[in-house]
TrEMBL record, chain A:
GO terms for biological process: protein urmylation; tRNA wobble position uridine thiolation. Residues 53-246 form the tRNA(Ile)-lysidine/2-thiocytidine synthase N-terminal domain. PROSITE patterns: UPF0021. Pfam families: ATP_bind_3, zn-ribbon_14. GO terms for molecular function: ATP binding; nucleotidyltransferase activity; tRNA binding. It comes from Acanthochromis polyacanthus (spiny chromis). This is Cytoplasmic tRNA 2-thiolation protein 1. It comes from the Eukaryota. Its EC number is 2.7.7.-. The lineage of its organism: Eukaryota, Metazoa, Chordata, Craniata, Vertebrata. Residues 282-312 form the Cytoplasmic tRNA 2-thiolation protein 1 C-terminal domain. It is found in: Cytoplasm. Pathway: tRNA modification; 5-methoxycarbonylmethyl-2-thiouridine-tRNA biosynthesis. The keyword tRNA-binding applies. The gene is CTU1. GO terms for cellular component: cytosolic tRNA wobble base thiouridylase complex; mitochondrion.
UniProtKB/TrEMBL annotation, chain B:
One of its GO terms (molecular function) is nucleotidyltransferase activity. This is Cytoplasmic tRNA 2-thiolation protein 2. It comes from Acanthochromis polyacanthus. It is found in: Cytoplasm. Pathway: tRNA modification; 5-methoxycarbonylmethyl-2-thiouridine-tRNA biosynthesis. Keywords: Cytoplasm, tRNA processing. Pfam families: CTU2. The lineage of its organism: Eukaryota, Metazoa, Chordata, Craniata, Vertebrata. Plays a central role in 2-thiolation of mcm(5)S(2)U at tRNA wobble positions of tRNA(Lys), tRNA(Glu) and tRNA(Gln). May act by forming a heterodimer with CTU1/ATPBD3 that ligates sulfur from thiocarboxylated URM1 onto the uridine of tRNAs at wobble position. The keyword Ribosomal protein does not apply.
Length: 343, 508
């Protein structure tokens, strides 16, 4: 007995929404999904008319769907935005070069301008070279920190007012869990915010329009809309700590599907006691980027890579920052601590 | 490596693996008997000192328990609460270094009826525990969970807290107590006669089982059981004249509870659920003195110093890993702890840095608090919040109720009406969606006076109720309090234009 769509009650239902469990037909699902993203954008006042917005595109499902939905909503509701695609090439052979092809295809399909920034040209290091020096653990730190700056630099080159990323509900929930597991109170407070603050030089505010969209619904949307995307995992990801949080979240979702939004709700309502030390935002003394320490993280990481001391950015070494700034050589003991682990 | 600010020392040097053949790291004389953490091997004497000291320090640092107070110890029979009991005994014994100064009582809640234990087993467990309690000499109360069906409505109402005492009052109270009592006054005010546990009617047990059974998922069942247990504990404390309640949650248990609470949507109430003191009931304050002890330390201590404990099956005994959120979190944290030994302590330290998100501290207006868990409501529909997103999703996935027009032409912002509209729409469409819609369960079964329970509950209690097939089995005191609050809010709506309010009550 075919089920009827619970929204229009006319057509036959072809899918069951992971978020609410309702059975919907294709068109009603598209409309519900797009409308939710629209409501999120409107309620959080993410964009102003006339702004130029850079869509961070990696070629994966989140950014492909994001580009599609942003273009659609921009036309349907007359946001008045100028959309562009920004992509980052980390230099991971077999992974990034394939996904970049998808981004180029997206560019042609949606007729949006595209800018690709690569680690090679910005920092002089590809991820492959970094992993060779650092090893298989802790390399996600390098990639993540570099990518954030790369996106900002790309945005400045394109002169956009805002960046939007394809972070979905599962990502935000995972981040909340990970921050609890790592005891990172400062990030715990900020990670559920839908957009970052817009102060500081060279910093482009970024937002997450897909914050309340489940990953499974994004895949459903892409599948039924026949959107083309690149779906392999990064080859270096299996050893990441985030994997634990992700498995846990997937198991939670199988027990109770609303858990993902419940975790985001918890994260939004957390409140931190007064008197807990919080980092203060300043600028990096070397490159001028925003930083809570004297040197920003990517300068520290780069310094470590260039000097052959890849563990310089992993862990707490604030006392060494002054030494690095003044180009003093480090003592033998300090150097030994920072060298890579030999296997 | 799993903490953000962790010092990353040289990892590959072969450090001496501490074993029991080493010397104790504290006194350095006697050979070690137990290894607690990676670097700490203690001998028996030093371990006992360390253990006892932690308990005292925890009570002394948070000056919440005043001298001469009556404190109710909630003992479940498990290792942590029995260890807490033995610590209190130690602390009150004559030869203690600085004696504890309160009067303890013990309460044990017999949950065999909810778990489905046969009567003989229940009686056996109860008599085992009775022996343990009698040996301590403290007054004890054995309360079957079935009593929760007869509770008065005042349980779910926050009582007025005792007058706020300035911090200096603690020291003054201690001095006064020492003057009056000296060192040998510790007989509790009234001697407790031997009270046999009340008989449990078979019908009550069945009602209780029906109630627990009406929750469809194990997660909801455990949550419900927790709530009922808390209510019964508070009621016992109130009727027997205790002003404080001591719970025996260990560090491991609290870390699991923190993650579980986040997964259940209790982010706003985390500080009360896992903090040292919990004052949501107003007059009864719950404290958790065992929150600094890991489960491993407690197990070592119990074994080395023969602390008796009883194994009692619970709802999640022998269930698979993914049977409920609580069970899954427990196995996740314990597995992670083996790979990353600082997991539990990191999570514990996170919980220390949280506080209650208090929007209105007034306890007179009860409609600000959740009906079941008595925490401040976190369901104000703010712009761009997860809660608003769920309401919008519910609306968009079903036929909209009358009055909103055709959904496709509506291009303005959709105002999410409260969850009551979801109730309406189910009855409008003739209830055919109820079987599928997750929110429909309760509305169709209650006939005339549709109690909109959802508006009286916090986010996570709403989820629990949503998992119940019918709310008719809820105990009388909950339903009558719900009706009373609803009538009161209707009254307030009628006269709202004449009320002079200084500030938003937070409940529209």
């Amino acid at each position: 007995m075919p089920a009827q769509c619970s929204s229009c009650t006319e057509k036959r239902a072809v899918l069951k929404r992971p978020k609410t469990g309702h059975s919907l037909c294709k068109e009603c699902f598209f409309w519900a999904f797009e409308e939710e993203v629209h409501q999120t954008i409107v309620a959080a006042e993410l964009f102003k008319s006339g702004e130029s917005v850079g869509i961070a595109a990696s070629g994966g499902k989140d950014s492909t769907v994001l580009a599609h939905v942003m273009k659609l909503l921009n036309e349907r509701y007359n946001y008045g935005l100028e959309l562009m695609l920004i992509s980052v090439d980390e230099g991971i052979t077999g992974y990034r070069d394939d996904s970049l092809e998808t981004v180029k295809r997206n560019q042609q399909q949606y007729e949006l301008p595209l800018k690709i920034v690569s680690y090679e040209e910005l920092y002089g290091w590809t991820m492959d070279a970094i992993v060779k020096q650092v090893g298989l653990k802790n390399n996600c730190t390098f990639c993540g920190v570099f990518r954030r700056q790369a996106l900002d630099r790309g945005a400045v080159m394109l002169k956009v007012d805002k960046i939007c990323t394809g972070h979905n509900a599962d990502d935000v929930a995972e981040t909340v869990l990970m921050n609890v597991l790592r005891g990172d109170i400062a990030r715990l407070r900020r990670c559920t915010a839908i957009s970052t603050s817009s102060e500081g030089e060279g910093v482009v505010p970024r937002c997450k329009p897909l914050k309340y969209a489940y990953e499974k619904e994004i895949v459903l949307y892409a599948y039924f809309k026949k959107l083309d995307y690149f779906s392999t995992e990064c080859i270096y990801s299996p050893n990441a700590y985030r994997g634990y949080a992700r498995t846990f979240l997937k198991d939670l979702e199988s027990i109770r599907p609303s858990t993902i939004i419940d975790i985001i709700h918890s994260g939004e309502n957390l409140s931190v006691r007064e008197g807990v030390k919080m980092p203060v935002q300043g600028t990096c003394s070397r490159c001028g980027y925003i930083s809570s320490q004297a040197l920003c993280k990517s300068c520290v990481l780069l310094e470590g890579l260039n000097r052959g001391l890849p563990k310089l950015g992993i862990g707490k070494h604030h006392r060494l920052h002054d030494k690095i700034l003044s180009q003093q050589p480090l003592t033998d003991k300090e150097e030994r601590k920072l060298k890579p682990v030999d296997f | 490596m799993c903490q953000v600010d962790e010092e990353y020392h040289d990892q590959l040097e072969r450090t001496d693996v501490p074993s029991a053949s080493q010397k104790c790291v504290k006194c350095k004389e006697v050979s070690a008997a137990v290894v607690i953490r990676a670097g700490d091997a203690y001998c028996r004497g030093c371990f006992k000192e360390y253990f006892i000291h932690k308990f005292r320090a925890m009570l002394g640092k948070n000056r919440i328990i005043f001298p001469g107070e009556k404190v109710l110890l909630a003992v479940s029979g498990g290792p942590s609460s029995c260890s807490m009991l033995s610590q209190v005994q130690e602390g009150l014994s004559q030869k203690a270094h600085k004696k504890l100064r309160f009067f303890p009582g013990i309460v044990y809640i017999d949950e065999g009826g909810a778990v489905g234990q046969p009567t003989e087993e229940r009686q056996r467990t109860v008599s085992e525990l009775e022996m343990v309690f009698k040996a301590t000499g403290f007054p004890f109360h054995i309360v079957p969970l079935e009593q929760v069906l007869d509770l008065p409505g005042s349980v779910v109402v926050t009582a007025l807290p005792p007058s706020q005492q300035p911090p200096s009052a603690y020291k003054a109270a201690v001095d006064r107590f020492n003057q009056i009592c000296g060192s040998d006054c510790l007989a509790p005010p009234e001697q407790q006669q031997k009270k046999s546990p009340p008989d449990v009617h078979e019908s009550h047990t069945q009602l209780l089982q029906q109630l627990i059974g009406s929750a469809k998922t194990l997660t909801a069942r455990e949550d419900l059981l927790n709530t009922l247990r808390q209510h019964l504990l508070v009621h016992t404390a109130r009727t027997e004249g205790y002003s404080k309640l001591m719970l025996g949650d260990s560090c491991t248990r609290l870390a699991i509870k923190l993650l579980t609470s986040i997964s259940l949507g209790r982010g706003a109430q985390l500080a009360q659920d896992t903090g040292f003191s919990d004052s949501r009931y107003g007059d009864i304050i719950s404290v958790r003195p065992m929150r600094d002890y890991s489960a491993k330390e407690i197990a070592h201590y119990n074994r080395m110093f023969n602390v008796p404990s009883v194994v009692i099956p619970s709802l999640e005994t022998k269930t698979s890993e993914k049977a409920s959120i609580q069970r899954l979190t427990e196995s996740f944290v314990t597995k992670l702890q083996t790979d990353f030994p600082s997991t539990v302590s990191t999570i514990y330290r996170t919980s220390e840095k949280l506080q209650t998100a208090c929007r209105s501290s007034s306890t007179d207006d009860h409609s600000d608090r959740c009906l079941l868990c008595l925490c401040v409501l976190d369901t104000a529909v703010e712009k761009a919040s997860a809660f608003q997103a769920t309401l919008i999703s519910e609306q968009l996935s079903q036929t909209l109720s009358l009055g909103s027009g055709s959904p496709r032409q509506n291009s303005g912002p959709v105002k999410p009406t409260s969850a009551a509209s979801a109730v309406q729409c189910c009855s409008l469409s003739g209830g055919e969606d109820c079987g599928r819609a997750t929110s429909g369960g309760s509305c169709c079964s209650s006939a005339k006076e549709t109690i909109d329970l959802k508006s009286l509950l916090c986010y996570s209690c709403q989820l629990t109720i949503r998992d119940m097939s019918s709310v008719d089995h809820l105990p009388q005191y909950i339903m009558s309090e719900a009706k009373r609050r609803q009538r009161r809010s209707q009254m307030r709506d009628e006269i709202s234009e004449f009320l002079l309010n200084d500030g938003d009550e937070g409940n529209d």
